[in-house]
Amino acid sequence: MELKITPLHPHIGARAEGVDLRQALTPDLARQIEAAMDRHAVLVFPGQDLNDDQQMAFGTAFGPIEGSRATVDVHRHRLAHPLMNDISNLDENGEILGPEDRRRMFNLGNRLWHTDSSFKATPSKYSMLHARLIPPEGGETEFADMRAAWDTLTPKLQETVRDMVCEHSLLFSRALLGFSGFNEEERRQFAPVRQRLVRRHAGSGRRSLFLSAHIGRIEGWPVPEAMALLRDLTEHATQREFVYQHRWSLHDLVVWDNRCTMHRGRPYDDKQYRRDMRRVTLSDTAPTLEQAV
Questions:
Q1: Is the pTM of this model over 0.85?
Q2: What CATH number is given to the structural domain containing 230?
Q3: Minimal CA–CA distance to 198: which of 256, 244, 153?
Q4: Which of 95, 112, 130, 140 is deepest in the core (most CB within 10 A)?
Protein backbone atom coordinates (compact mmCIF):
# COMPACT_ATOMS: atom_id res chain seq x y z
CA MET A 1 0.00 0.00 0.00
CA GLU A 2 1.26 3.46 -0.90
CA LEU A 3 0.11 6.36 1.25
CA LYS A 4 -0.85 9.48 -0.69
CA ILE A 5 -1.14 12.74 1.28
CA THR A 6 -2.99 15.75 -0.14
CA PRO A 7 -3.14 18.92 1.99
CA LEU A 8 -6.63 20.32 2.58
CA HIS A 9 -5.70 23.61 4.23
CA PRO A 10 -2.63 25.88 4.43
CA HIS A 11 -2.12 25.14 8.14
CA ILE A 12 -4.02 22.03 9.13
CA GLY A 13 -5.54 18.90 7.63
CA ALA A 14 -4.75 16.51 4.78
CA ARG A 15 -6.47 13.73 2.87
CA ALA A 16 -4.81 10.31 3.25
CA GLU A 17 -5.51 7.81 0.48
CA GLY A 18 -4.13 4.60 -1.00
CA VAL A 19 -4.44 2.47 2.14
CA ASP A 20 -6.98 -0.06 3.39
CA LEU A 21 -7.17 0.30 7.15
CA ARG A 22 -9.01 -3.00 7.52
CA GLN A 23 -5.60 -4.61 7.06
CA ALA A 24 -2.90 -4.61 9.72
CA LEU A 25 -0.45 -1.74 9.34
CA THR A 26 3.17 -2.47 8.56
CA PRO A 27 5.67 -0.65 10.79
CA ASP A 28 6.74 1.46 7.81
CA LEU A 29 3.18 2.53 6.99
CA ALA A 30 2.52 3.38 10.64
CA ARG A 31 5.64 5.59 10.62
CA GLN A 32 4.45 7.31 7.43
CA ILE A 33 1.05 8.03 8.97
CA GLU A 34 2.61 9.36 12.17
CA ALA A 35 4.95 11.62 10.16
CA ALA A 36 1.95 12.96 8.22
CA MET A 37 0.15 13.57 11.52
CA ASP A 38 3.15 15.52 12.83
CA ARG A 39 2.98 17.73 9.74
CA HIS A 40 -0.78 18.16 9.22
CA ALA A 41 -2.31 17.36 12.68
CA VAL A 42 -5.54 16.10 11.06
CA LEU A 43 -5.76 13.25 8.53
CA VAL A 44 -8.93 12.29 6.64
CA PHE A 45 -9.05 8.67 5.49
CA PRO A 46 -12.07 8.47 3.14
CA GLY A 47 -14.08 5.35 2.37
CA GLN A 48 -12.80 3.18 5.23
CA ASP A 49 -15.60 0.65 5.88
CA LEU A 50 -14.31 -0.44 9.29
CA ASN A 51 -15.94 -2.49 12.00
CA ASP A 52 -15.27 -1.83 15.69
CA ASP A 53 -12.48 -4.40 15.98
CA GLN A 54 -10.67 -2.99 12.96
CA GLN A 55 -10.95 0.57 14.24
CA MET A 56 -9.62 -0.46 17.64
CA ALA A 57 -6.75 -2.38 16.04
CA PHE A 58 -5.79 0.63 13.92
CA GLY A 59 -5.66 2.77 17.04
CA THR A 60 -3.35 0.45 18.93
CA ALA A 61 -0.70 0.88 16.21
CA PHE A 62 -0.06 4.40 17.54
CA GLY A 63 -0.25 4.00 21.31
CA PRO A 64 -2.37 2.79 24.20
CA ILE A 65 -6.11 3.33 24.11
CA GLU A 66 -7.42 5.39 27.01
CA GLY A 67 -8.53 3.23 29.91
CA SER A 68 -11.79 5.04 30.66
CA ARG A 69 -14.57 6.97 28.96
CA ALA A 70 -15.63 10.34 30.36
CA THR A 71 -19.38 10.82 30.10
CA VAL A 72 -22.50 10.80 32.22
CA ASP A 73 -24.41 7.55 32.68
CA VAL A 74 -21.26 5.73 31.59
CA HIS A 75 -22.88 2.35 32.37
CA ARG A 76 -25.52 2.90 29.65
CA HIS A 77 -23.22 1.97 26.77
CA ARG A 78 -24.50 0.48 23.50
CA LEU A 79 -21.15 -0.47 21.92
CA ALA A 80 -19.44 -3.83 22.36
CA HIS A 81 -16.05 -2.34 23.21
CA PRO A 82 -16.16 -0.69 26.65
CA LEU A 83 -13.31 1.70 25.72
CA MET A 84 -14.78 2.87 22.39
CA ASN A 85 -16.44 6.29 22.70
CA ASP A 86 -19.99 6.60 21.40
CA ILE A 87 -20.23 10.04 19.75
CA SER A 88 -23.82 9.63 18.62
CA ASN A 89 -27.34 10.72 19.47
CA LEU A 90 -28.45 7.13 20.13
CA ASP A 91 -29.35 5.33 23.32
CA GLU A 92 -28.36 1.78 24.25
CA ASN A 93 -31.24 0.44 22.11
CA GLY A 94 -30.21 2.40 19.02
CA GLU A 95 -33.05 4.90 19.37
CA ILE A 96 -32.63 8.68 19.19
CA LEU A 97 -32.04 10.18 22.63
CA GLY A 98 -35.01 12.06 24.03
CA PRO A 99 -34.84 15.88 24.02
CA GLU A 100 -34.39 16.02 27.82
CA ASP A 101 -32.11 13.00 28.20
CA ARG A 102 -29.14 14.06 30.32
CA ARG A 103 -26.79 12.32 27.90
CA ARG A 104 -28.05 14.57 25.10
CA MET A 105 -27.69 17.66 27.30
CA PHE A 106 -24.16 16.62 28.25
CA ASN A 107 -23.17 15.91 24.63
CA LEU A 108 -24.11 19.44 23.56
CA GLY A 109 -20.76 20.39 25.09
CA ASN A 110 -19.10 18.89 22.00
CA ARG A 111 -20.19 22.03 20.14
CA LEU A 112 -17.75 24.09 22.23
CA TRP A 113 -14.15 24.45 21.11
CA HIS A 114 -12.33 21.82 23.14
CA THR A 115 -9.52 19.27 23.29
CA ASP A 116 -10.40 15.65 24.01
CA SER A 117 -9.40 14.45 27.48
CA SER A 118 -7.57 17.61 28.48
CA PHE A 119 -9.48 17.06 31.75
CA LYS A 120 -7.55 13.84 32.44
CA ALA A 121 -4.26 13.89 34.35
CA THR A 122 -2.57 12.33 31.33
CA PRO A 123 -4.40 13.85 28.37
CA SER A 124 -4.91 12.27 24.98
CA LYS A 125 -2.63 11.89 21.99
CA TYR A 126 -4.84 11.05 18.98
CA SER A 127 -8.58 10.82 18.50
CA MET A 128 -9.93 8.62 15.68
CA LEU A 129 -13.55 9.27 14.73
CA HIS A 130 -15.36 7.03 12.25
CA ALA A 131 -18.66 7.83 10.50
CA ARG A 132 -21.05 4.86 10.55
CA LEU A 133 -24.26 6.83 9.93
CA ILE A 134 -24.56 10.55 9.14
CA PRO A 135 -27.46 13.00 8.85
CA PRO A 136 -28.35 14.51 5.45
CA GLU A 137 -26.98 17.91 6.50
CA GLY A 138 -25.05 19.53 9.33
CA GLY A 139 -22.84 17.80 11.87
CA GLU A 140 -19.54 19.03 10.44
CA THR A 141 -16.41 18.99 12.62
CA GLU A 142 -14.03 21.95 12.72
CA PHE A 143 -10.37 21.77 13.67
CA ALA A 144 -8.10 24.67 14.71
CA ASP A 145 -4.30 24.66 14.55
CA MET A 146 -2.87 25.52 17.96
CA ARG A 147 0.70 25.69 16.66
CA ALA A 148 -0.19 28.39 14.14
CA ALA A 149 -2.14 30.13 16.90
CA TRP A 150 0.97 30.22 19.12
CA ASP A 151 3.22 31.37 16.29
CA THR A 152 0.99 34.39 15.58
CA LEU A 153 0.69 35.67 19.16
CA THR A 154 2.64 38.83 19.86
CA PRO A 155 5.98 38.23 21.58
CA LYS A 156 4.65 40.08 24.64
CA LEU A 157 1.62 37.81 24.92
CA GLN A 158 3.77 34.72 24.33
CA GLU A 159 5.91 35.78 27.27
CA THR A 160 2.82 36.37 29.43
CA VAL A 161 1.24 32.95 28.86
CA ARG A 162 4.26 30.71 28.32
CA ASP A 163 4.55 29.37 31.87
CA MET A 164 0.87 29.42 32.85
CA VAL A 165 -0.82 26.40 34.41
CA CYS A 166 -4.57 25.90 34.00
CA GLU A 167 -7.19 23.70 35.63
CA HIS A 168 -9.33 21.55 33.28
CA SER A 169 -12.59 19.76 34.06
CA LEU A 170 -15.76 18.62 32.35
CA LEU A 171 -17.54 20.42 35.17
CA PHE A 172 -16.20 23.71 33.80
CA SER A 173 -17.10 23.14 30.14
CA ARG A 174 -20.63 21.90 30.86
CA ALA A 175 -21.25 24.83 33.21
CA LEU A 176 -20.78 27.13 30.21
CA LEU A 177 -23.99 25.62 28.81
CA GLY A 178 -25.82 25.60 32.12
CA PHE A 179 -25.47 21.84 32.64
CA SER A 180 -24.88 20.97 36.27
CA GLY A 181 -26.70 17.67 36.69
CA PHE A 182 -23.75 15.60 37.86
CA ASN A 183 -24.01 12.98 40.58
CA GLU A 184 -21.41 12.71 43.33
CA GLU A 185 -19.42 9.98 41.57
CA GLU A 186 -19.23 12.03 38.38
CA ARG A 187 -18.12 15.11 40.32
CA ARG A 188 -15.35 13.07 41.88
CA GLN A 189 -14.34 11.58 38.52
CA PHE A 190 -14.31 14.99 36.83
CA ALA A 191 -12.34 16.83 39.53
CA PRO A 192 -10.06 19.50 37.98
CA VAL A 193 -6.57 18.57 36.77
CA ARG A 194 -3.57 20.83 36.09
CA GLN A 195 -2.18 21.29 32.58
CA ARG A 196 0.30 23.60 30.92
CA LEU A 197 -1.21 26.33 28.74
CA VAL A 198 1.76 26.17 26.38
CA ARG A 199 3.41 22.89 25.45
CA ARG A 200 5.91 21.67 22.91
CA HIS A 201 4.55 19.24 20.33
CA ALA A 202 6.86 16.24 20.42
CA GLY A 203 6.51 15.20 16.79
CA SER A 204 7.23 18.57 15.19
CA GLY A 205 9.17 20.33 17.95
CA ARG A 206 6.86 23.35 17.65
CA ARG A 207 5.23 25.15 20.56
CA SER A 208 1.45 24.94 20.79
CA LEU A 209 -1.34 26.46 22.86
CA PHE A 210 -3.22 23.89 24.93
CA LEU A 211 -6.65 25.50 25.01
CA SER A 212 -10.05 23.96 25.70
CA ALA A 213 -13.53 24.85 26.92
CA HIS A 214 -12.65 22.51 29.79
CA ILE A 215 -10.40 25.21 31.33
CA GLY A 216 -11.98 27.00 34.29
CA ARG A 217 -9.03 28.59 36.06
CA ILE A 218 -5.48 29.86 35.55
CA GLU A 219 -3.34 29.36 38.63
CA GLY A 220 -2.50 32.64 40.35
CA TRP A 221 -5.08 34.66 38.42
CA PRO A 222 -8.53 35.88 39.51
CA VAL A 223 -11.15 33.79 37.73
CA PRO A 224 -12.82 36.64 35.77
CA GLU A 225 -9.47 37.93 34.52
CA ALA A 226 -8.36 34.40 33.64
CA MET A 227 -11.56 33.64 31.73
CA ALA A 228 -11.30 36.93 29.81
CA LEU A 229 -7.76 36.04 28.75
CA LEU A 230 -8.79 32.51 27.76
CA ARG A 231 -11.65 33.88 25.67
CA ASP A 232 -9.24 36.24 23.89
CA LEU A 233 -6.83 33.38 23.21
CA THR A 234 -9.62 31.14 21.92
CA GLU A 235 -10.93 33.85 19.61
CA HIS A 236 -7.41 34.30 18.25
CA ALA A 237 -6.81 30.56 17.86
CA THR A 238 -10.09 29.89 16.04
CA GLN A 239 -9.84 32.57 13.36
CA ARG A 240 -10.98 31.15 10.03
CA GLU A 241 -7.43 31.18 8.66
CA PHE A 242 -6.44 28.56 11.28
CA VAL A 243 -9.54 26.34 10.89
CA TYR A 244 -10.34 23.37 8.64
CA GLN A 245 -13.99 22.30 8.48
CA HIS A 246 -14.65 18.66 7.67
CA ARG A 247 -17.92 17.74 6.00
CA TRP A 248 -18.48 14.09 6.71
CA SER A 249 -19.09 11.35 4.18
CA LEU A 250 -20.09 7.83 5.16
CA HIS A 251 -17.13 5.74 6.36
CA ASP A 252 -14.73 8.66 6.71
CA LEU A 253 -12.15 8.05 9.42
CA VAL A 254 -10.71 11.31 10.72
CA VAL A 255 -7.66 11.25 13.00
CA TRP A 256 -6.48 14.34 14.86
CA ASP A 257 -3.70 15.18 17.25
CA ASN A 258 -5.08 16.58 20.52
CA ARG A 259 -1.65 17.86 21.49
CA CYS A 260 -1.78 20.64 18.89
CA THR A 261 -5.43 21.10 17.84
CA MET A 262 -8.80 22.13 19.16
CA HIS A 263 -12.05 21.02 17.57
CA ARG A 264 -15.81 21.36 17.82
CA GLY A 265 -18.88 19.69 16.35
CA ARG A 266 -21.42 21.73 14.41
CA PRO A 267 -25.18 21.37 14.95
CA TYR A 268 -27.54 19.06 13.08
CA ASP A 269 -31.14 18.00 13.64
CA ASP A 270 -30.40 15.45 16.34
CA LYS A 271 -34.08 15.08 17.24
CA GLN A 272 -34.96 13.76 13.78
CA TYR A 273 -31.89 12.11 12.24
CA ARG A 274 -29.68 9.35 13.60
CA ARG A 275 -25.94 10.00 13.69
CA ASP A 276 -23.62 7.13 14.59
CA MET A 277 -19.99 8.17 15.13
CA ARG A 278 -17.46 6.05 17.03
CA ARG A 279 -14.21 7.31 18.47
CA VAL A 280 -11.04 5.59 19.60
CA THR A 281 -8.88 7.84 21.79
CA LEU A 282 -5.21 7.24 22.54
CA SER A 283 -3.48 8.30 25.72
CA ASP A 284 -0.43 10.57 25.70
CA THR A 285 2.82 9.53 27.34
CA ALA A 286 2.63 11.67 30.51
CA PRO A 287 0.91 14.66 32.16
CA THR A 288 1.78 17.93 30.43
CA LEU A 289 3.57 19.19 33.54
CA GLU A 290 6.01 16.29 33.17
CA GLN A 291 6.66 16.90 29.48
CA ALA A 292 9.49 19.01 28.11
CA VAL A 293 8.60 22.56 27.08
A1: yes
A2: 3.60.130.10
A3: 153
A4: 130
Q: Cα separation of 42 and 7, whole Å?
A: 10
The answer to whether residue 105 scores a pLDDT higher than 80 is yes
pLDDT confidence tier of residue 293, bands split at 50, 70 and 90: confident
Give the range of the structural domain holding residue 66, as residue numbers without chain letter.
4-290
pLDDT band (50, 70, 90) for residue 102: very high
What domain count does the chain have? Answer: 1
Helix segments in the chain, DSSP class H: 27-40, 52-60, 102-107, 146-151, 155-161, 170-175, 184-189, 223-237
Of the CA atoms within 13 Å of residue 159, those in its CB half-sphere come to 3
Q: Which of 216, 266, 251 is nearest to 20 (CA)?
A: 251
Beta-strand pair 261-265/42-45: unpaired
Strands laid side by side in the 215-218 sheet? 193-196, 165-168, 215-218
